[in-house]
Design a protein that fits this description.
138 residues, mainly beta, 5-stranded mixed β-sheet, 5 strands, elongated, Kif23_Arf-bd, Kif23_Arf-bd_sf
Length: 138
């Protein structure tokens, strides 16, 4: 049996997307070439593939839907079945740009960031040390 290298990308995947998952209509969708798409994994699909991915959706703490791609390798067992060993989790999150984020803006930690120069309070010159003033050049 001729075996191709893994870098050639000839691996077959089982793409498990449960029927309860929502279609989010996002631009960036995970596309897996050479995949057998199933809503419930079965022995027939797992026997033909070397890789497995589960698309799991859950509600994030900020109310948005977060999709996790849980990846794994499919192994043959002694009893003639298949087992999946999970190896990696990728998180995909969609955010609404109109909802303010919890991240702090550069500026003050308590209040909103001020961007107008006219609204800023005048700042004292702290660069001079020990009371010496800079000389102006004529």
């Amino acid at each position: 049996m001729h075996r191709r290298s893994r870098s050639a990308g000839g691996e077959k995947w089982v793409d498990h997307k449960p029927a309860s998952n929502l279609d989010l209509d996002t631009v960036m969708q995970p596309i897996i070439p050479n995949a057998i798409k199933v809503s419930t994994p079965n022995e027939k699909a797992l026997s033909k593939c070397h890789k497995y991915v589960l698309r799991h959706q859950e509600l994030a703490s900020d109310g948005e839907i977060e999709t996790k791609l849980i990846k794994g390798n499919v192994f043959k067992t002694r009893g003639g079945g298949q087992a999946v060993q999970f190896t990696d989790i990728e998180s995909l999150k969609q955010e609404c740009p109109t909802v303010p984020s919890r991240k702090r803006r550069s500026g003050s930690a308590e209040g909103p960031a001020q961007t107008d120069i006219e609204n800023r309070a005048p700042m004292a010159n702290t660069s001079s040390s020990h009371g010496y003033q800079k000389r102006r050049r004529p």
